[in-house]
Structure formats: structure tokens, C-alpha cells
Specification:
The protein is an alpha/beta fold. The chain contains ten helices and 13 strands.
Length: about 290
């Protein structure tokens, strides 16, 4: 029985959504489906009831979950308390990210690096504001910081490589009168209630008084799904996480959003860091 398949089963049992679980595991949805099917074949019982949008544990799956979690716990304890004593650890790469940024491209870059560097360090992500990203990069908390909504902050000490481009979209419930549109302007939104994602302040760049200030993107999506108002966010950040009853319409005119990966220009750079920056830079030249 593959321990990694058990980890994937436990996460899918928590998320009840194949696409979401696959993204959190940084694997393809089809790969996750194959692994769950292989585990079910080995156990001789189905673990999930599947629908188009969600999955639900079967009675067997519900009873099997505590056993899977015990096995995972034993393996984790072994890795932490025994194997780590005899294995040279690879330090994690600490990455700070703006709440507006998708980490998908960075994970793709990591996978590209693993072809030439199998022992690439794990990544630890911290989502925070632009000011804290810059401070964290300067004081050594972050090895890499990804931001872009604020002005480019490349200086004599801080260098940057292009990370990705994106555009803004308007998030509305699927039953909203505007939901069948492909684009919307700020003027058309008028006085509709606006839900703001907290960044540097709790004020909105679109409305002076948001009806709700959310701390995270999932909270924004949940509030929109519940019909509390509309929001405006970068498309790539939310496209894989839209609730079933939420539509994303392109904001027009929408500025081209350019995100950058920042790093300290003169700081000692690990092989992992150098490889990641090279992959990101090469992608932008294509």
C-alpha cells in the first residue's frame, strides 16, 4: 500500500473536490484519480461516491480514514524522529507571496528544476501584504518574494525577474443579471455592494466603503457565493477555485497586471534558488 496514495486519499477526504485536492498536492487531477482508483482496487472497496463537482466518502471510506491517518502519522514520526537523524536535511525555500498571486507558475518552475536537481528544497509559502513582503525579503525572512499590484520595487539591493501577467475580473453569483456577460466596467457596477480583499489597508481602490473586508481569497469567494456582493481579483489567482455558483467576468478596461519575483541582489544564493530564477527568466524569453 503506497503511503503517498494514503496521504492523497486523506487530503481528498478533507477537500471533497478532486481539482482542489490535486492543486494542493501539485499533481494533475487525472493522476490523483488514478492513484485513488489504485488504492480502491487494492482495498477491494470504493472510497468515494463521485459526482461532476464533488466527491463524498462512502461508509467504508469513512471508516478507513482513521486507519489511513494512523499510518500517515507513524510514517511522519519515523521520518521526523529516526530517518532525519541519518539524512542531511535540505533547507526549505521560504517564499512570500501577495494574496493576489497564484503560486502555480512557481510550482511548475520547481518541477522543471527537479529534472536536474532531484533533492530540491521544499517550499514554505507565506501570504502577506506588499510592505511585509519587502521587509521580509530585506531582513532575510524570505528568500523570494512575489508581488506586482504595487509599483515595481527593484532597487540597488533588490533584483526582480518577471513572474507572470494577469488581468482583473469581476466575481458575481451565477444568478446575477450581469452573469451572462463576458465583460463589465466599473461604471456598470455602480453602487452594487463591493467585497474587498484586505491588502495594505481596509479601504478599497474601487469603492470608498466596501460592505465587507475579507482577510483571504477563499473568504472573498465564499462571501460572493453567499450573495453578499461582488469582488474584483486577478483571474489567474481564482480561476481554479471558483465556487460552482460564481462567475468571473473580465473587467474592462482592465490594466495589464505584471507580477515579479524579487530577491536580494547580493545575498548568497543556493543552487535551488539560482535554478528557480533561471527557469522563471527563461520562461519570460519564450
Amino acid at each position: 500500500m503506497e503511503t503517498e496514495y494514503l496521504r492523497q486519499f486523506a487530503l481528498l477526504a478533507k477537500e471533497c473536490h478532486f481539482q482542489t485536492a490535486a492543486e494542493l498536492l501539485y499533481i494533475n487531477q487525472s493522476t490523483l484519480s488514478k492513484h485513488i482508483a489504485a488504492l480502491e482496487k487494492e482495498l477491494g472497496q470504493p472510497l468515494f461516491y463521485r459526482t461532476t463537482r464533488q466527491v463524498q466518502l462512502t461508509d467504508f471510506g469513512r471508516e478507513f480514514l482513521p486507519y489511513a491517518e494512523k499510518i500517515i502519522g507513524i510514517v511522519n514520526d519515523c521520518n521526523t524522529n529516526l530517518i532525519s537523524k541519518y539524512k542531511e536535511s535540505t533547507p526549505a525555500l521560504h517564499v512570500g507571496v501577495s494574496p493576489f498571486v497564484s503560486i502555480r507558475r512557481l510550482m511548475e518552475a520547481k518541477l522543471s528544476c527537479q529534472d536536474i536537481m532531484p533533492e530540491i528544497a521544499s517550499m514554505v509559502f507565506t501570504e502577506t501584504t506588499s510592505a511585509k513582503l519587502r521587509a521580509g525579503l530585506s531582513n532575510g525572512r524570505f528568500h523570494l518574494a512575489i508581488d506586482g499590484i504595487s509599483p515595481l520595487w527593484e532597487t540597488g539591493d533588490i533584483a526582480a525577474v518577471p513572474y507572470t501577467q494577469d488581468h482583473l475580473c469581476v466575481l458575481l453569483t451565477a444568478d446575477h443579471p450581469f452573469a451572462q456577460r463576458e465583460t463589465l466596467s466599473l461604471h456598470e457596477l455602480g453602487d452594487l455592494p463591493y467585497i474587498h480583499l484586505y491588502t495594505e489597508t481596509n479601504t478599497s481602490p474601487f469603492l470608498s466603503e466596501p460592505v465587507l473586508v475579507a482577510d483571504t481569497v477563499p473568504q472573498v469567494l465564499s462571501a460572493v457565493s453567499e450573495g453578499k456582493g461582488y469582488s474584483i481579483l486577478p483571474y489567474e489567482r481564482i480561476q481554479k477555485h471558483l465556487p460552482e455558483n460564481v462567475k468571473a467576468l473580465r473587467l474592462t478596461p482592465s490594466p495589464d497586471l505584471q507580477f515579479f519575483a524579487y530577491y536580494l541582489r547580493h545575498a548568497p544564493r543556493s543552487e535551488v534558488m539560482a535554478a528557480l530564477l533561471k527557469v522563471l527568466a527563461n520562461e519570460q524569453r519564450r
